[in-house]
Write a structure and sequence with these properties.
Length: about 575
């Protein structure tokens, strides 16, 4: 700040001798801008324009200051004036493109970045930001090409490596993705595609007046896009962006508290926006990275989760949770070998860690390596014989290997260790269902919901069991309770729709299915019921289309066969009836 204050004093003194010098007004504004005083900067940029209305450097800088004063319309108008006045002023095109991108106006942003490339095809920033637009559109091949070209132009561009990592992960090139992310973390992030480019007029009659000449080359990308003999562009330093956008420590602390609150409330949309805003200022903020990693897992975006957890694991090598998250993300993407390798490496470093063994056992179980899973769980139990998750895992293994007595013993042990936990009763009930012992299953499900009234899975399973027993009134109660516990529960609404059909209320079922189509339009069970309702209304061809979708959305061979049989019957009926 001291250097900037000295610059301001020098410029003001110079203005006493040259009061019409637009450059001096602009440079005074720049000094205030660097101090984070955007309101004061606006005044000086405007005075520069009063002196010379066509002074594009000040138009550009004024636009940036307006952005930080949250006057985006004025910022856009000002940037547009700059490029209209001097179409070859690439930095103003870049800033206008960046503003459009931040507003979600992707086509306009792309157009401005392309203008930058027309002026300078070696603009790494433009290639990076075009890549981001492609990434947003899930055009991963195009995004990859842009990031690779960007790195070819500037091999030290840290952000481009981060973005390359995302693009590679999206294409399931996980090892390459992690390598790119690792390289990004090794580099100093000296500029970013999310920074606006300040305009500096390097032409001066008296070189001693150029107090800020130290800016030249600071964060400057290769190949300037502006008129070489007059203007130079420089990216704002992180400290400038922080101050100008009023992002001080108190604001950061407030935003982090907001992030914690949004996580607790489960507001995923707002959470994602807030986390990304924090990362723009602190690219390695752990809470923001954790939030986005977990959101990616919740949304089944394994590629993004791999990158997020990869960064977290690199930053925090001693925190096993991030390695576990990274392994689960790889498993989500179908790469169980890599998931196992990650956990094995951690277990080698922490041979007594029960949680790591349990997670490894779970992965073996999910890929049906029952013997390896059993070894993991049994070894972990030797270390901690009271770990409930281990008995639950063993119970699942015994159940699928047709060892019901051993499975019952495992689940009974879960109940003994914690009688209030619903999982033991729930799993035991599911075992009884597989043995066609429905009455015994009902009793266990009841114990689960008595001990944990909000356990959604137990209410749903109890409702389904009542349906099998023909006790539709009791089933309706359980599905209604499920819908109350979780208003967005697909299975609760589907259960109510199925009961409506059985109760002779097809219109009610039809309405419930229509609602589900809006939020769960990729569920095969829904299309099976939807097809049945359409067929009852005489819409045979629409019913066939619904059953065809059921087949396309499921991997369950039994359900596919059921849908195929329904299609065959419907087509035969249509031929007999002469079509409808």
């Amino acid at each position: 700040m001291g250097q900037n204050q000295k610059a301001i004093e020098a410029y003001k003194k110079a203005l006493e001798f040259d009061p019409d010098n637009a450059k001096l007004y602009n440079d005074t504004g720049l000094a205030y801008h660097r101090m984070g005083a955007s309101a004061e900067a606006v005044k000086w940029y405007q005075r520069a324009l009063d002196s010379d209305p066509g002074y594009v450097v000040s138009l550009n800088n004024l636009g940036i200051a307006y952005v930080y004063q949250e006057q985006q319309q004025l910022a856009e108008e000002t940037f547009r004036k700059a490029v209209a006045r001097m179409p070859q002023y690439g930095d103003a095109h870049f800033n206008l493109g960046l503003l459009y991108a931040k507003q979600g106006k992707d086509e306009l942003a792309m157009s401005e970045y392309q203008e930058v490339l027309k002026l300078n095809q070696d603009s790494a920033l433009a290639h990076n930001n075009i890549g981001l637009l492609y990434l947003k559109q899930k055009s991963y091949t195009e995004a990859l090409a842009q990031f690779e070209h960007c790195i070819k132009l500037d091999s030290d561009f840290a952000e481009a490596y981060y973005n390359l990592g995302f693009a590679l992960a999206a294409q399931e090139k996980y090892q390459e993705s992690l390598a790119a992310t690792k390289r990004a973390m090794e580099l100093k992030s000296y500029y970013t595609g999310g920074s606006f480019k300040l305009g500096i007029d390097f032409y001066v009659d008296d070189p001693e007046l150029l107090i800020l000449d130290g800016w030249q080359g600071s964060g400057q990308e290769q190949g300037t896009t502006v008129a070489q003999d007059i203007f130079g562009g420089v990216l704002e330093e992180a400290s400038i962006r922080t101050k100008a956008s009023k992002w001080d420590e108190a604001t950061l602390e407030s935003d982090i508290e907001s992030l914690k609150k949004l996580r607790a409330e489960g507001k995923s949309g707002e959470l994602k926006k807030k986390a990304k805003a924090i990362l723009e200022q602190q690219p390695q903020n752990q809470l923001a990275l954790e939030s986005l990693a977990q959101l990616a897992m919740d949304e089944k975006q394994g590629a993004e989760a791999i990158v997020r957890y990869g960064v977290l694991a690199k930053l925090n090598p001693e925190q096993k949770d991030f390695k576990i998250g990274l392994a689960r993300a790889h498993l989500m993407q179908g790469d169980s070998d890599q998931a196992i390798a990650i956990l094995r490496e951690e277990i080698a470093a922490r041979p007594e860690d029960v949680e790591l063994m349990s997670q490894l056992g779970r992965i073996y179980l999910e890929r049906c390596d029952y013997q390896d899973a059993r070894v993991c769980y049994e070894n972990a139990l030797k270390i901690n014989p009271s770990d409930i998750s281990l008995f639950l895992g063993l119970g699942e293994i015994f159940a699928v290997q047709n060892e019901p007595e051993e499975a019952i013993m495992a689940y009974r042990q879960v109940i003994k260790l914690n009688p209030k936990l619903p999982q033991g009763y729930y799993q035991l009930a599911q075992l009884y269902i597989s043995q066609d012992k429905l009455e015994q299953a009902v009793e266990e499900f009841k114990k689960a919901v008595i001990n944990s009234p909000a356990h959604l899975d137990s209410h749903l399973a109890l409702g389904e069991t009542y349906v099998k027993l023909g006790q539709l009134d009791k089933a309706a109660v359980e599905y209604a309770l499920s819908a109350k516990i979780s208003p967005d529960s697909f299975n609760a609404k589907l259960g109510l729709a199925q009961l409506a059909v059985k109760a002779g209320q097809p219109d009610k079922a039809y309405q419930l299915c229509q609602e589900l189509m809006q939020s769960h339009g990729d569920q095969p069970e829904l299309y099976m019921l939807w097809g049945r309702l359409l067929a009852q209304r005489g819409k045979t061809r629409d019913a066939v289309e619904a059953w065809q979708k059921a087949i396309s959305f499921t991997k369950d061979e039994a359900l596919k066969a059921l849908a195929g049989k329904a299609i065959e019957t419907a087509m035969q009926w249509e031929q007999v009836a002469g079509g409808r």
